[in-house]
From TrEMBL:
Keywords: Heme, Iron, Membrane, Metal-binding, Transmembrane, Transmembrane helix
Protein name according to UniProt: Succinate dehydrogenase / fumarate reductase membrane anchor subunit
Pfam families with a match to the protein in the record: Sdh_cyt (PF01127)
SUPFAM superfamilies: Fumarate reductase respiratory complex transmembrane subunits
InterPro entries: SQR/QFR_C/D, SuccDH_FuR_B_TM-su
Taxon lineage: Bacteria, Bacillati, Actinomycetota, Actinomycetes, Micrococcales
Entry GO terms, CC: membrane
Coiled-coil parts of chain: none
Localization terms from the record: Membrane
Keyword Transit peptide: no
Organism annotation: Micrococcus terreus
Gene Ontology molecular function, alphabetical: metal ion binding
Length: 161
């Protein structure tokens, strides 16, 4: 019986790199570098946006018991909060989409599967961003009937309009 002194597992970085992992000569990797940078910057900004959102909704006023249609209507009557929530929506969706895109690139082995998963992801992202933006900017809190009379379910501030 002979004993070999050769290691069973090769030491890291000693073997040849698989050609599919090598960058082509024309590729500078700038897109991936920009998405990496976007993830870091948007992550920091999202932390600020989320904590201010949570503080203004849960700590100010009646807390969670005060959140209802009238609360959202009153908040979105101010353009500042409309743009705040819009920035939160857009950054969260783009940040999440980029993260899922990276996961798809890492784990989907076949090109066709990778392509269709990313297409579904992009379509879903566009639909959610468009619908969310429309909701924020077309939201009408003052409910009226066919004759133009204010409904009872409308928030109190609608009577002063």
């Amino acid at each position: 019986m002979s004993v070999t002194t050769e290691p069973i597992i090769a030491a890291p970085r000693t073997g040849r790199i698989d050609p599919k992992y090598l960058r082509s000569k024309g590729s500078s990797g700038s897109f991936e570098m920009l998405t990496w940078l976007f993830m870091r910057l948007s992550g920091v900004l999202l932390v600020v946006l989320i904590f201010v959102h949570l503080f203004s909704n849960l700590m100010v006023g009646d807390g969670i018991n005060g959140i209802d249609f009238g609360f959202v209507a009153g908040k979105w009557a101010d353009p500042f909060w409309q743009f705040w929530d819009l920035a939160l929506l857009w950054l969260a969706m783009l940040h999440g989409t980029n993260g899922v895109r990276t996961i798809i690139n890492d784990y989907a082995e076949r090109d066709g599967v990778r392509f269709w998963l990313k297409m579904i992801l992009y379509v879903a992202t566009v639909v959610i961003i468009v619908l969310g933006t429309l909701v924020i900017f077309t939201f009408e809190p003052c409910l009226v009937d066919g004759a133009g009379n204010l409904l009872e379910a409308s928030p109190a501030f609608c009577e002063t309009r």
